[in-house]
Design a protein that fits this description.
This protein has 11 helices and 8 strands. By secondary structure, it is an alpha/beta fold. The chain has an 8-stranded parallel barrel, surrounded by 6 helices. Helix 9 crosses helix 10. The longest helix is centred in the middle third of the chain and has 20 residues. The structure holds NADP nicotinamide-adenine-dinucleotide phosphate. The site of NADP nicotinamide-adenine-dinucleotide phosphate (NAP) has 29 residues, from strand 4, strand 8 and helix 10.
Length: 310
């Protein structure tokens, strides 16, 4: 897919090196195991790799992509606030990018994002950090300006709605999944119209990768009157996607759902498991879910904009 106005050509499946797994680093994988996972992704045709200073996986990505940088799109990020809560300055950001380039073993990063920006932080980002990013671009240190949202805290996309309308950023990363499709109209459609490249995060996260977590989330929705018992059963609420509509699993359905949404360019998948990586890349390459499956998912969750599935 061409990533909006950046002109960068990326695989539809992108490897996410953060999230709950951080390439397995979150649960004890060795550095060489995580490097092998990134190499495996490249071997099977994944060309978009997303990391961040905060994930502690930039060094791993740098080692895995050294020597095969051509054709690989590297994406990383810096928070707009410091650990002590003070806003990051233009000079801080330039310093952060130097560290990222060093760890990634490259002279120029393809997409550099402001990471997890809230609506309250957005004005500072535009005033102080966008001009800094434009200068860094002129210096040849980054190709495209990106911004990512704090989906769990901003599930209705208030920050990204503004960012897409303003057009300062070439690429956005947005939370989107079956449980909260609100990005479709509010973010993805206007981003496409504006030529902004889109990266999907949270395609499965916890709620769509663990049966117990999904049952808990759906039971909560039912209790609050958001989901009708006729639409989804209490036991195995999304099991119908497998039993009636041929999905290999709920996870498979969840990635296919995102991949075939209009305006979704790259779907990120985060994992520490080579088997999951292969399954997920296959899912992202698979056809759309049948219309009847999509209709039922829409009846269940189509109007919700307050969950992240985190
Ligand atoms: N604000 C931000 O900028 C922000 C926030 C969050 C994420 N991100 C980026 O977006 C990427 C994607 O998000 P995510 O990592 O949360 O991705 P995700 O793909 O929605 O969820 C990944 C989780 O699901 C599990 N999983 C994956 N495949 C599975 C399978 N086939 N079967 C069962 N479980 C499976 C993984 O555990 P296993 O390790 O066991 O596979 C992992 O914990 C991140 O890695 C990061 O790069 C950015």
């Amino acid at each position: 897919v061409i990533l909006g106005r950046t002109g960068l050509q990326a695989s539809r499946a992108g490897l996410g090196c953060g999230g709950h797994s951080r390439l397995g680093q979150a649960y004890g994988a060795s550095e060489s195991e995580s490097i092998a996972l990134v190499e495996r992704a490249l071997d099977i045709g994944v060309t978009f790799i997303d990391t961040a200073f905060a994930y502690g996986t930039e060094e791993i990505v740098g080692r895995a992509t050294a020597g095969r940088r051509g054709g690989v799109i590297l994406s990383s990020k810096a928070h707009p606030r410091r650990a002590d809560g003070r806003p990051v300055s233009a000079a801080d950001l330039a310093r952060f990018l130097e560290g990222t380039l060093r760890r990634l073993r490259t002279d120029c990063i393809d997409v550099y994002h402001l990471h997890g920006v809230s609506l309250a932080e957005y004005d500072h980002c535009v005033r102080e950090l966008v001009p800094a990013m434009l200068r860094l671009r002129e210096q040849g240190k980054l190709r495209a300006l990106g911004i990512t949202e704090r989906f769990a805290a901003d599930p209705a996309h208030r920050m990204l709605e503004r960012a897409v309308a303003d057009g300062h950023f070439d690429v956005i990363m947005v939370g989107y999944n079956m449980l909260n499709p609100s990005a479709r109209d509010r973010v993805l459609a206007p981003a496409r119209a504006a030529g902004i490249g889109t990266l999907i995060m949270f395609a499965v996260r916890r709620a769509l990768s663990r049966a117990d977590e999904l049952a808990r989330v759906v039971a909560g929705l039912r209790e609050q009157g958001h989901v009708d018992a006729c639409v989804l059963p209490e036991h195995d609420p999304l099991g119908f996607l497998v039993s009636e509509h041929g999905a290999a699993s709920v996870v498979d359905a969840a990635y296919r759902y995102c991949r075939h949404t209009d305006g979704a360019d790259v779907v990120l998948t985060g994992t520490g498991s080579a088997a999951h990586l292969l399954e997920n890349v296959r899912s992202i390459a698979a056809p759309p879910l049948p219309p009847a499956a999509l209709e039922r998912v829409e009846r269940a969750f189509g109007k919700l904009d307050f969950l992240s599935g985190n």
